[in-house]
Amino acid sequence: MIRISVNGTVYAKNAGQELGVFLREIQALPGAEDSLSGIRFPCGGHGKCGKCAVRATGALSAVTEAERRFLGEEGLAAGLRLACQVKALGDCEISTGEPPQDKNGCVAIEGEMAEFELLPSFSGYGAAVDIGTTTIAAKLFDDKGNELSSFGMQNPQGRWGADVISRMEAALKGEAENLAEAVRGAVNEIIDRVAALAGIGAKEEIRSVVITGNTVMLYLLCGIDTEPLTHAPFEAKELFGRSFPAASIGLTAVPEAEIYIPPCIAAFIGADTVCAALAVGLDRPGDPAIMTDIGTNGEMVIRSKKGLYACSTAAGPAFEGAGISMGMGGFEGAVDRVSIGEGDRLTAHVIGGEKGARAIGICGSGLIDAVACLLELEAVDETGFMEEDECEIADGVKLIRNDIRAVQLAKSAIHAGILTLMHASGTAVGDVVTLSIAGGFGKFLNIDNAGKIGLIPSELVPRVSAAGNAALSGASMLLLSVPARERALSFSRMVDVVELSTDPMFSQEFMNQMAFEC
Fold first, then answer.
1. What is the average pLDDT value for the chain, to the nearest integer?
2. Which residues lie across from 111 on neighbouring strands?
3. What pLDDT is attached to residue 24?
4. Cβ(347)–Cβ(341) below 8 Å
5. Does residue 341 lie within any of the structural domains?
6. pLDDT given at position 44
7. Cα end-to-end span (Å), the chain
8. What is the CB neighbour count within 10 angstroms for residue 179?
């Protein structure tokens, strides 16, 4: 046995195991959450992104080529190693450097909420939880509809990759139970957190919980095999819209509670989309309107004169910090806003900068701003070509050519998805009265810059509304209104799914929208 000290807490383990695997295992041990916040592997631990760097000393395996490529001799000399590459051969000491779990950072919690009939599914207290691919957020309510507390944290499944594809791949390789335990532990923790903040006992007093999320997140939570979602015809055999006993899905924080999971629409259009649509009122009659959640998967719904249509477009994780050379989530040290200052110099705002935090990376909102500024300065042309190998955005934070390409692919997928959805529903751009952008990314997004880079059609920029965490708002509605559950179920069954993978217009528009409009 060897002794490994992780952030000051000592564990015993057999030698020779990859450090990344070891960190995953001890995260699940009792009391480990006090010492670890959950290291993330955006590329799934394949040594392709270099973002699982830890400071490590002691008896460790030899440096790999991946570590030399990403860390360089300077980083290696400073004691940095990639957790997914290094093995513990004997006693060693590890510092993860991860953001603490008790900091919300830029986790979006508040969101738009349409009017609804107050008729709670519980007496006393109930909780609403949104399991996002990147973050998890929760709210606690009493049966009078009063919000008592809220909390946000990172989804610990990030250790298996930044996107749902990486996590399904991990599940296929035998990690399904570990993925389930990780998200269940996080849901238990966040329910305990909101209960403690309100001064109540979760086990004793919470009797109803609504949990929303995309289809893959909900399958992993419930221990449902995700294999059918990994290949055509991408069939989702369980679309939820029903209740579960808490014990049946391992929610020990509320063992006596009824867990309601809202309906999904399809394999990649989940309950979070249904909840968000309800929150912005898309299930009600009205003029043409669009709701989209711009993330790794860009889910979008349109209410048109012909009916309801939805699609999901794989934008990739660029806007959530993954796939970008210095990308990160919205934590302290992230560049979240960029503008052009005097002398055509870039000016960057850093999360926590007012408290002395230095820039260490760039998050999605900062990335959009940075690209818009580089286009305006002609450092990047309409094809996405950047003459310099890299451009400095802030002291020590740079974008490289591949980062610009990643933004092009992501923004093209979203823009083309919106146009294809409008075409399928017979809706002209001028007919759309509102484009609601849901999720944390939308909350912090500079809409004008989103239009400048072509993330959304420029004609829709004046009609954009930031809906915040509309998925959590919708889940809260379903907690506080039994009639809203019928609305959600009816809505999910009325939506026509537009399959972008086989739509010729999407293919054409995807290519058309790759260019920037300079």
1. 88
2. 468
3. 58
4. yes
5. no
6. 65
7. 61
8. 24
Q: Read off the CATH number of the domain in which 261 is found.
A: 3.30.420.480
**pLDDT score, position 330:** 77
Residue that finishes a domain, picked among 95, 113, 146: 95
pLDDT computed for residue 25 by the predictor: 60
Q: Where residue 16 falls among pLDDT bands split at 50, 70, 90?
A: low
Query: Which pLDDT value is given to residue 33?
Result: 37
Q: Are residues 134 and 213 in the same domain?
A: yes
Question: Are 275 and 130 members of one domain?
Answer: yes
Tracing tokens 């830890």 back to the chain, one arrives at: 54
% of residues, the chain, pLDDT over 70: 91
Quick one: three-class SS letters along 330-371? CCCCEEEEEEECHHHCEEEEECCHHHCCCCCEECHHHHHHHH
Q: Which of 87, 80, 38 is nearest to 59 (CA)?
A: 87
Same domain? For 22 and 162 the reply is: no
pLDDT at position 32: 38
Confidence (pLDDT) at 56: 86
Average pLDDT over residues 409-431: 96
**Cross-strand pairs, 300:** 292, 311
Shared domain for 74 and 6, answered yes or no, is yes
- Domain range enclosing 7: 2-95
Domain assignment of residue 357, yes or no: no
Quick one: angle between helices 401-424 and 364-376, nearest 10? 100
Alpha helices in 235-391 (DSSP H): 271-279, 364-376
Using pLDDT thresholds of 50, 70 and 90, give the confidence band for residue 189: very high
Specify whether 68 is located in the same domain as 132: no
Distance CA 518, CA 340 (A): 16
Domain annotation covers residue 27: yes
21-to-159, 333, 351, 477 alpha-carbon distances in Å: 9, 27, 31, 39
pLDDT of residue 103: 41
The number of domains in the chain is 2
Q: Which residue has the tokens 């996590």?
A: 167
pLDDT of residue 376: 95
Residue 239 lies in a domain: yes
Q: Distance between CA atoms of 347 and 366, rounded to whole angstroms?
A: 11
Compute the CA torsion angle 64, 69, 71, 76 (nearest 10 deg): 50
| Nearest residue to 296 (alpha-carbon basis) of 334, 335, 333, 329 | 329
Same domain, 231 and 183: yes
